[in-house]
Amino acid sequence: MTSTTLDKTTIGFGLSAAVMSILNTLLVIFKELTPPFKAGMASAMGHHWTTHGVAVIVLFIVLGFILSGAVKPESWSGSRLGQTIAGSVILSAAALAAFYLLH
Amino acid sequence: MSLFGIQVSVMVHVLFGVLGILLAVALLVYILNLNEKNIPRIRSLSLYTAVSICLSYVIGGWWYVVYYASERDIIRAGPWKWAHTFFMEYKEHLFFALLFLSILLPIIAYRNDLMVPENRRLLLIVTLLVVVIGLAMDGSGALISRGVVVGYMGR
To answer: Residue A65 to residues A12, A18, A71: CA-CA distances in angstroms?
Structure first.
């Protein structure tokens, strides 16, 4: 049975954390495999990691607000959101580790 | 900045990181022993955890961007080059997931009725992830520091 007790901001930012964990890993893989893109990130803000950080944090906040306004609270229980976040974070952490082990 | 100042800034980064982990562990204990009286403390701890992790990120990030390059070169020239090529690369990027999760903690704690088991479970899962990733960050940091020492010893 789905609980309707989570508020929309929690669901929005929870889903944003899940999505951004995956996007963060994809951005790492893309920039490491595309040297000109990494160089562009470095020239944008002085260091590729600074640009990376600003991009993912701004996206996390913007996506959090967008999803907060778009989600249907009755579709998300605490358990379902927790499992989505945990699955996404574990998958992205494992993919990041695998990438740097093989890279 | 002086050499002393640079080293202190790294230690302050570690201090806030470890403090964030300790606060998250305390939060975990209170969530596992949830009752009406504990809720204000759970909310405070969730906020303190987020602030501590954010401060660790800002201070560590500044040090990494401004001062890490010379240490990276020492690590890469030494026998423990994987301390940089795996652990630092992993740490500097996985930290963003930790940052998102720690920011999420007070959002969950302040905006929901924690006496509802489903909401409590969500806070428990996110707090557990913060503790586990925080420990991974801490262990990686320790290996990176040893990588510098081993790099110097090999010279």
So the answer is: 6, 14, 10
